From TrEMBL:
Principal place of residence: membrane
Family annotation (InterPro entries): ABC-2_transporter_component, ABC2_TM, ABC2_TM_bact-type
TM regions (residue ranges): 21-39, 148-170, 191-214, 226-248, 260-281, 313-335
Gene Ontology CC annotation, any one: plasma membrane
Membrane topology per record: Multi-pass membrane protein
Record keywords, A-Z: Cell membrane, Membrane, Transmembrane, Transmembrane helix, Transport
Location in or out of the cell: Cell membrane
Name of the protein in question: ABC-2 type transport system permease protein
Highest taxon of source: Bacteria
GO MF, one example: ABC-type transporter activity
Pfam families for the chain: ABC2_membrane_3
Family (UniProt): Belongs to the ABC-2 integral membrane protein family.
Domain ABC transmembrane type-2: 113-338
Length: 341
């Protein structure tokens, strides 16, 4: 009887919590669907540029790459490689096959190089010599962890700042601290900025530790400037913090705060660079543009893998700041339901 009484109470309590009941079904379906959409995407199709290639080999390459080959000079190809518009450049120098790979994506490198080598071997170019392979970014030592490591750094910083910041701000509200502040003449924007700056001090420390550990202990590939990378991770952490404090206004307890993870955090992982977004459906590529982690990961990959300067990724940085600005403004308005000034 006692056991059944407990079972009845738990069942009734769970049935009254419509959000948890819906999440029990929606979250797993959402995550499984995202995994299916990402892994069931089209096979990655490399694009290459060619110059001074014999017509028979050019025909084979056109066939192998489904006509995704462009004829251009080496200088023009380097500009295309820098912009990320092609994956490799192929030419013949002194009867040797010269291949210049983009280099920052280990998966694309492997697929591109394999296809080119198959095409060259099928032509039997008259030389048993191995092709000369160079990398515009990175090197042949670049592995999968180096490729996705920058994304993982951004994700873990975003994830833990979101959880810790959101729950901490929620406790301020549920324990009455926020209510006491709102009963004083302090303005809403002062409260929001005060919390962001206060928590921001610890996000700087967290970013410094994670980035330093990844670069100097795990020896992840780092071609750019350490302090510029740290600045990007800090901006991404502030975005996560402002988003967390905003969503915490709509949660009544810590469990409800955790419910935002499969809806807000997990989807960003699939569209931030761990998987090739280019092979996904167009509407999924558009969806990825609505996620802050996409721009943070792009900027971090550009600095770490390509050695670019932060001014080269100013668009990504500005969009991250834009997300933060929007979340901060919404935070100020969210406090209206607690007090009207």
């Amino acid at each position: 009887m006692n056991v059944m009484a407990v079972v009845k109470r738990i069942t009734q309590q769970f049935m009254r919590d419509k959000r948890s009941l819906a999440l029990l079904v929606i979250a797993p379906v959402l995550v499984i669907t995202l995994i299916w959409l990402v892994l069931d995407g089209n096979e990655y199709e490399p694009e290459i540029a060619i110059d001074d290639v014999p017509p028979p080999l050019e025909e084979v390459l056109q066939e192998e790459f489904d006509n995704d080959t462009k004829e251009m000079s080496e200088e023009a190809a380097k500009q295309e490689l820098q912009a990320g518009d092609i994956d490799a450049f192929l030419t013949i120098k002194e009867n040797e096959v010269f291949i210049l790979l983009e280099g920052s994506d280990a998966t694309a490198n492997s697929a591109t190089l394999r296809t080119i080598q198959e095409a060259v071997q099928s032509m039997d170019a008259g030389s048993a010599a191995e092709p000369v392979i160079a990398y515009y970014y990175g090197s042949d030592q670049l592995n999968l962890f180096d490729q996705v490591g920058s994304v993982l750094i951004g994700f873990f910083i975003f994830f833990f700042v979101f959880i810790i910041g959101g729950i901490s701000f929620l406790r301020e509200r549920t324990q009455g601290t926020l209510e006491k502040l709102l009963s004083t003449p302090i303005k809403r924007w002062e409260i929001v900025f005060g919390y962001l700056i206060g928590f921001g001090i610890f996000t700087i420390l967290q970013s410094l530790i994670i980035v330093s550990y990844s670069v100097f202990v795990l020896d992840i590939w780092m071609a750019g400037d350490f302090w510029q990378l740290l600045l990007v991770t800090f901006l991404l952490a502030i975005t996560a913090l402002s988003l967390a404090t905003l969503l915490s206004a709509f949660a009544n307890n810590e469990f409800q705060m955790m419910q935002f993870i499969p809806l807000i955090i997990i989807p960003q992982v699939f569209f931030s660079g761990i998987f090739p977004v280019e092979s996904l459906a167009e509407w999924l590529q558009i969806l990825s543009k609505l996620m802050p982690l996409t721009y943070g990961a792009n900027a971090m990959q550009a600095i770490m893998l390509k050695g670019l300067d932060i001014w080269d990724v100013w668009q990504d940085v500005c969009i991250i700041i834009g997300f933060t600005t929007v979340f901060v403004i919404l935070n100020i308005f969210a406090l209206k339901k607690h007090r009207r000034l």
